[in-house]
Amino acid sequence: MKMAEKAARIQQILDEQHPETPVPLDHADPFTLLVAVLLSAQTTDKKVNEVTPALFAAAPGPVELAALPVEQVKDLIRQIGFANTKARHLVELGRLLVERHGGQVPEDFAALEALPGVGHKTASVVMSQAFGHPAFPVDTHIHRLAWRWGLSDGSKVERTEADLKALFPRASWNKLHLQIIFFGRASCPARGHDPNACPICSWAGVRKRLLEESQRPRSGNRPLMDSP
Description:
mainly alpha; Endonuclease Iii, domain 2; elongated; disordered C terminus
C-alpha cells in the first residue's frame, strides 16, 4: 500500500470513529488554554481540569496572574507534576504577556515560544485550537503512534511533525491532532495493546514495529494533553 493511500485510510477511520474532537482541557479563551496546556506537561488532562478552576478564579487573566506570589500559584497547582517550576513559569508568563503583548496571548508562533514554559508543541496547540491556524502538535504519544502506523521513522518529533504535515491535508491538521489522541486512548494504547483488535494496527503492516516497541524499556513519564 502506498503511503498516501495508507494516510487516507487512517484519516477515514479516524473520521468515522472520532467525528467530534472537543479540546480535552477545560478553558474559556486563549489565555486559559495556554495556561492549561503549559500545566499539562507530565500530567493528565483530568488532573489539570481539577486544579485550573481555582487557579482561574484567582487569576482569570495575565494581569491577575502576574500579581500573584509564586508560592500562592504553587499552592493552587500543587497536585500537578513539577509544580514549583510551573508556578514560576506561570507568574513570569503573566508578566511578559502584560509587558510585551498588552495582556493578550500573541497569535504568533515565535512570540508564544519566547514565553517561559512554552515549547513548540504548546504553541502549536494554542495556535490551532485557540486561533484556528493550521498546526500539527506532536507530543511523544502522537510521535509513537505515527511510528507504530508506519507514517514516520520515529527518529525525532520534528521529523514526525514534518511527515504528518506532508501526508495529510493542511485543512485537517487541527482536527487530526485531537483525533489521534482520542483514538490512541480508545483503541491504540501504549501498554496492553492487541494489534489484531486495533482498527489501524491490524492492517497497517507495522507488526515488526509493535514487537520492537514491546521490547523497549518503558518510561514512567506521560505528558499531558496528548497522552493516549
